[in-house]
Design a protein that fits this description.
199 residues
Length: 199
């Protein structure tokens, strides 16, 4: 058709949203991080959408935030808008970032990341679950086993101690996660867009 000859139509046809699942514990600023990323997308001129699924109390699960960004500037879309998902699709995530190692392994065990497609950025730090704390002996799960689950579920992984970095710099885990996402190059945002939003 005639529309297909338009450059922006080709861009729309050949591109799909870049998807990120954020797993954060209560009080770590996962919602703030998601709002930052959506605002960075707006500042940089890209369409984005986010949704969230609340976790539960007493450290039995993370709150997850799902964000998609269409990697073509809105100025090149000819007035059209991309269609985004309302929730993460197992096996179709470009990236997962998680502030706690067990939550990363839980996400991997649930089949959300893909060994062919997904990059995982995870913290090596642990916040013990209710079950681990209520055990009569040492109920801690083995970190090496958790990391092996993570490694087998993704095409690439990056492990850093987000809690230690946050303490060293007197900031929140959400800020560390923002820096890790920016450094990963996952989204087509210039550095200045991140800095503008943080300022």
């Amino acid at each position: 058709c005639g529309l297909c000859s338009q450059p922006e139509s080709l861009l729309m046809h050949n591109s799909r949203p870049v998807s990120l699942l954020i797993c954060a514990l209560g009080g770590e600023g996962g919602g703030v991080l998601t709002a930052w990323l959506v605002e960075v997308a707006r500042v940089a001129g890209f369409a984005a959408q986010s949704t969230s699924i609340p976790g539960v109390a007493q450290r039995t699960g993370a709150t997850t935030y799902f964000i998609e960004v269409f990697p073509v500037p809105q100025s090149a879309l000819g007035g059209r808008q991309p269609v985004f998902s309302l929730n993460p699709i197992p096996g179709a995530l470009d990236a997962v970032i998680s502030s706690e190692l067990l939550e990363t392994a839980r996400c991997a065990s649930n089949g959300l990341p893909s060994p062919e497609r997904t990059m995982i950025i995870t913290s090596s730090s642990r916040t013990l679950t209710t079950l681990e704390r209520s055990h009569l002996g040492d109920g801690r799960l083995n970190d090496a086993a958790l990391l092996q689950i993570v490694q087998s579920a993704c095409r690439a992984h990056h492990v850093l101690d987000m809690q230690a970095i946050a303490r060293t710099h007197g900031t929140a885990v959400s800020a560390v996660m923002l820096g890790a996402i920016a450094a990963s190059g996952l989204f087509p945002f210039p550095k200045e867009a991140y800095l503008q939003v943080v300022r």
